[in-house]
Amino acid sequence: MSFNIFICGVGGQGLVLLTSVMGNACVKSGKRAITGEMYGLSQRSGTVFVHMRIGKDAFSPLIPYGGADIIVALEAIEALRYVEYLKKGGIVLMNSRIMRPPVETSKIILEKGSKYITLEEIVSRLRGWTPNIAVVDAQGLARKAGNVNTENTVFLGCLSALESFPVEESHIRESISETVPKKTIEQNLKAFELGKKGSYDSLCKLVACRKG
Amino acid sequence: MALKDVIANERRDAFMLCNEAIARGAFESNVKVVAFYPGAPTSEVLDTFSDALGALDYQMKIAPNSYIPMLEPSSPQEAKEMVKRAFEISERHGVPVIMRTVTRVNHQSGIVKLEDINMKEFKRVKWKDLKEEFTTLGEVARQKKLRMLERAGRLAEEFEGSEFNIVKDATSDVGVITSSVSYLYVLEALKILNLESKVKVLKLGTTYPMPRDLVGNFLKGLRKAIVVEELSPYLEREVCAIAKDANPSVAIFGKYSKTFSEAWEYNPSIVVKGIASALGLKYPDYDAVVEEARRLKGMIPERNPTFCAGCPHRATFVALNQALKAQAVKGKDHFFTNDIGCYSMWIFPPISHSDSSLCMGASVGVANGLSHAIEERPVAVVGDSTFYHATIPAIIDAVHNGNKFTLIILDNSVTAMTGQQSNPSTEFTAGWRQGKKVSIEGICRGIGVGFVEIVDSYDIKNNVEVFRRALEFDGLSVVISRRECALYGDRNKRRRGEPIIPFYVDKNICKRPYMCLRTFYCPAYEIDGDRQPRISPDICDGCSVCSKLCPFSAIKRPGAR
Prior knowledge:
heterodimer; A: alpha/beta; Pyruvate-ferredoxin Oxidoreductase, domain 3; 6-stranded mixed sheet; 9 helices; B: alpha/beta; Rossmann fold; 3 domains; 5-stranded mixed sheet; 24 strands; 39% helix
């Protein structure tokens, strides 16, 4: 059986790097991996996604609707945007961070009574699809790791705690060291560790995790 | 990017993007010259080549489009193998080979087996030693056509046994014929529908010339044939033609039967639905899943791509819009013709301003034509890269014919949209070797444009005035708005060790007229709980432009008085 991860976020958050780290780790673990990535206007500030599939019987680079085991959302609004890809009862692993698109902000100043969508609203809507929602303060953890740009690696740490995640932790660590810019290896490994540790208080209360 | 995997001279597995696998295959084939359109959606191939080799010769070519063999890969591994085979075929038959990759092939990553790289040094040859014929007039062309037809015949025969054409046999009178990434969707769909090894599959990797015997033999004995391919029904047309002799009674399901649409990129759900409906089988109700998700989501804000924080284009457009508004008050309206580049994003909300945005270089051509046909003054916009490759003949026409419009050239030093590739406005060439900048204003003046002014994109106050004069000018007026791409500039700053200092809104001074937000739409801005504008220090680029828009000078740089 394949393990299907739908990764989404905002252009510039490092989804492609996150995918490369996982892909290289799959090579090390002898696992088959295939991805379908967003293309075109996926620059900074736009919505971006990657379909990542690990396992022998994952043929298509795109995950069928309702086929993802987990959504990894590097930004909170984006978790909701792609919920149709998640299995009913699947896992949502999402950032608590919301990045406000200029469209949303301009609506607030132009239309009286219009409000930002809140994290609570997003989570409560997602509950209509699955009870398994873990919210991570990835930016906070990345800061703690010494580099605010390591949010993506925090999520790798969270994923690694999962029992169903088919890649070995040692391979992920090796892959991080080989893939991220040299100067940031230590910070990324720290971010990974913080993400993994943090999972035991949130994610692991919802779904089965490896022994910490 | 897995550059180290692209150039690693070792045999092992590597996880790479299909575009990178294509480059790798070329290296393994000892490629000597590569030619690309810079900034195509598949520009990673060019980036990969230029990063890896720096010293390759770089030239543009346009692929001829007839009697040329075509290979279509479905995955990165296959793409690499096909590139190698393509070079081999090319050498043996003296013909270019087209590798056709659809988007979902290019933007697919997977595990690729690396083999040896045997790059040999590039040596110039003497033209007269080549003894090749590169003319096409009259009788020469007629003779060439004969040779092309013979070659296509030889290739067709060869492709009958190509390793890229795969038959998955089964005891069944149903067969699926497919190519490219659709093959992967077919495998996925057969798994979902529990049809694995219950229907036959023919996957074609060589789609021109078509291996007609292979397809004909596959069709024999079939009751139903389902053709699964993206875009135009190319395979389907061939299959229909071959079936006429091979098996006229076979029912063919594809785009002509409306089993599939010619619109949209395929995905597993579309292919599951198509195959199931052709066979009268039940399938998962994907529409219901999508509909349920739609209801659950309710209204969520769109997240269109927009100009980066610090982007010079945003500042240029703020000034241009002010000037256009002032003209409109005087009853002088305009027609705004956009072009293709980062500045295309001006068409997205909340900005949504552009009357046309068609293809590269169209802005000047459209302005030329409309300057004779409409009452409003055309205002055209183009970036530096597109200016060089697609607008110069149109500017010559404008000057020659005395056309009256305003052209804004947004010179940000690089081909920004596709990832900061170099162009004649950059001091480097492909592979970041030293090159010579070609003067945009020099070209315009040389052509004879009567109004050429250069402004700093960030200097909004001054630029409104320059744009006003340009709009009033009785002829073609060109304004070059110059400031390097913010991302490119940041990269240079980091290299020089210069800090990027974000701005902040002083809440004690801000009276919330929202001038910073009303026209500027910078992604670094949000509204806080007090409905006060707030600048996210992680996103702000420190460009200072919003601070100049604030009537109360409430937007400050830390430490500035």
